[in-house]
Write a structure and sequence with these properties.
- The complex is a heterodimer of chains A (162) and B (428).
- Chain A is α+β, with helices and mostly antiparallel strands and 162 residues long.
- Chain A has a four-stranded mixed β-sheet with strand order 2-1-3-4, covered by helices on one side.
- Chain A contains seven helices and four strands, in the order αααααβααβββ.
- Chain B contains 17 helices and eight strands.
- In chain B, strands 3-2-1-4 form a four-stranded parallel β-sheet, with helices on both faces. Chain B has a four-stranded mixed β-sheet with strand order 6-5-8-7, with helices on one face.
- The N and C termini of chain B lie far apart (54 Å).
- The chains are: A alpha+beta (162), B alpha/beta (428).
- At the A-B interface, α3 and α6 of A face β5, β8 and α13 of B.
Chain lengths: 162, 428
């Protein structure tokens, strides 16, 4: 059983968030089909999905909290924990591995003093692994926030984190 | 007529092509001569006659796939979806098509939707493709403003609405029925088939899901005809294909070449051969979930049947090159870590089997393996890799590089176990 309390979503979500979610629902056959959209909309405003946000979205969509949490935790780009200002999505797939991506990743971990799944103490970066970014002719590659960086080496990767 | 239809607007131009530039090379002329003028069944015949096969990896004939869609019943929506969730490791072709020439995909989608009488379309795209998302949205809005898309296209009776749907992650969304569940706002767990999406797809309605590159081909087949398309290929399969190579080659990249181009030509001419100081040890011909091939297979043409006969699959056509200084066991361990992580967790052989395989591979790579581990890996390969033990092809795909890797690089596995260390580790 989930211990998250349901509440009137109006007390938790902003008018803008509810408006955007309702706008998605209008294009869909039922309210629950907006589950992923709802999570993405709220995350875009708040950076992550807290238990409180999750409960409010579930209420708004007429779903159980557990069902929505099952969806939220399935998708790797929905964050159920706070993340830093920028999320580093480091490609750990095979083409980057062949081009010594591991050494680049080690360097990032050393520079930022964090491991995968952790956030820097100044809250600037969170480091996560990601599936192939489709930039394999310029491996190794990573996203820092919305920006793609490629042809990385242990020597040049620090430049992407300034 | 060009022999590189898919990249004619991309080669030698920084791009992206906007609506006016797209039309310089005849863009939207196929649409103008078809919508409201040609019977959808006649377009379907063109696609069938072209023998176009799906470019997403499975190679299923596109015309046949479309022909399973029932006749319109007037009872609700019918959907066409572009699978733009490019996430197969080592695959980087659809990104180029969407970023550089977004109207090509949109025109292909409108023509395809017209053929199957779909009224709503989605481009299901991964969230990391920010540039492609922005350019597609811009192109859709330009096409709508020009009445090439939307209500009563070119004043015909045909209407088609197209949306870009940005995903929230997970490789499994690329599996077409998992994609449908994700579009419906659910966990992306593949559906058991039948029913097939053509009959009962998105929200239970007739739905076609096609890869981006497949849809980009449609416009050119409609414009130039099936015979022209077939003649583009060098052998049995018609058309061109975006082939690529990544890893330790001199010039990693992606090139539009005739279907049936030899692997040797792709690697030695277009990729420039191996990088200095590296030798070719093996390669995955079409992404992570295809079987290894070796230098003995270089003269095989990249075609669906011939690559299959050699024991692998052409897959996405973007090759991943294993050099002689990278450890095959380490590479396979990386691949299986990926497949284990990306399993949706529904079917037992995939959810439980892949992490087991991954642990054994990590152990062997670390020098802690035993000879009996090889027997376990072989037995697991048979259980996990068998078609029919799981809903979808994720687990069988995961086993392809493992089973073939154990066949071709068995000496490397044994060297790790007997030497109690990875012989490729050169130290920091």
């Amino acid at each position: 059983m989930s211990t998250i309390a349901t509440d009137n979503p109006m007390n938790i979500l902003t008018e803008a968030e509810i408006g955007e979610i309702e706008n998605e629902i209008r294009h869909l056959p039922d309210r629950r089909s907006a589950a992923i959209d709802g999570l993405k909309i709220v995350q875009a405003y708040r950076g992550w999905i807290s238990d409180e946000s999750l409960g409010a979205i579930a209420e708004l969509l007429g779903m159980s909290i557990d069902e929505l949490d099952g969806i939220a935790t399935f998708y790797n780009l929905i964050y159920r924990q706070p993340v830093g200002d920028k999320v580093i999505l480091f490609c750990d797939s095979v083409s980057c591995w062949l081009m010594d991506g591991d050494a680049v990743c080690q360097k990032i971990k050393q520079i930022l003093d964090i491991d995968y799944g952790e956030t820097t103490t100044d809250n600037q970066y969170t480091l996560l692994p990601v599936t192939c970014l489709g930039d394999c002719d310029h491996a190794p590659a990573m996203m820092v926030g919305d920006e793609l960086h490629h042809d990385l080496t242990p020597d040049n990767v620090g430049e992407c984190l300034k | 007529m060009t022999d590189k239809p898919l990249t004619q607007n991309i080669i030698g131009f920084e791009g992206p092509t906007d609506l006016s530039r797209y039309q310089v090379n005849g863009g939207y002329s196929a649409l103008r001569s078809t919508i409201g003028k040609t019977d959808p069944d006649a377009v379907l015949e063109l696609i069938k006659d072209s023998d176009l096969k799906g470019r997403g990896g499975a190679g299923f004939p596109t015309g046949m796939k479309w022909s399973f869609v029932p006749k319109p019943d007037g009872k609700g929506h019918r959907y066409l979806i572009a699978n733009a969730d490019e996430m197969e490791p080592g695959t980087f072709k659809d990104r180029i098509l969407m970023e550089k020439d977004p109207h090509q995909l949109i025109e292909g989608m409108i023509l395809s939707a017209y053929t199957i009488s779909a009224d709503i379309g989605y481009i299901f795209i991964r969230a990391e493709y920010h540039t492609a998302i922005a350019r597609l949205n811009e192109a859709i809005s330009d096409a709508q403003a020009a009445n090439l898309l939307g209500n009563n296209i070119l004043e015909s009776d045909y209407s088609f609405r197209l949306h870009v749907h940005v995903s929230a992650g997970r490789y499994i969304c690329g599996e077409e029925t998992a994609l449908l569940n994700s579009l419906e706002g659910k966990r992306a767990i593949p559906r058991a088939k039948p029913p097939f999406p053509q009959v009962s797809g998105l929200w239970g309605r007739p739905t076609i899901v096609n890869n981006v590159e497949t849809l980009c081909n449609i416009t050119h087949i409609v414009k130039h005809g099936p015979d022209w398309f077939k003649a583009l290929g060098k052998g049995v399969d018609g058309g061109t294909k975006l082939f690529g190579a990544s890893g330790r080659v001199k010039h990693p990249g992606c090139w539009e070449l005739p279907m049936g181009t030899s692997i040797r030509e792709i690697l030695e001419v277009h990729a420039g051969g191996m990088a200095d100081g590296y030798e070719l040890k093996g390669f995955l011909p079409g992404g992570a979930s295809t079987d290894f091939l070796t230098p003995d297979h270089l003269d095989i043409p990249m075609e669906y049947d011939t690559v299959m006969k050699a024991g692998s699959r052409m897959g996405t056509g973007t090759m991943i090159i294993l050099d002689d200084r990278s450890c095959p066991v380490g590479m396979i361990a990386n691949l299986e870590k990926f497949f284990a992580r990306e399993s949706c967790g529904f079917c037992t052989p995939c959810r439980e089997g892949l992490p087991w395989v991954q642990q054994i591979l990590d152990r062997i790579e670390a020098g802690d393996g035993e000879m009996s581990d090889l027997d376990i890996l072989e037995r697991q390969s048979q259980f996990i890799g068998a078609i029919g033990n799981t809903h979808c092809a994720h687990a069988p795909g995961a086993i392809e590089p493992l089973a073939s890797g154990m066949k071709y690089f068995r000496d490397d596995f044994i060297a790790h176990i007997e030497g109690k260390a990875c012989p490729y580790t050169t130290g920091p």
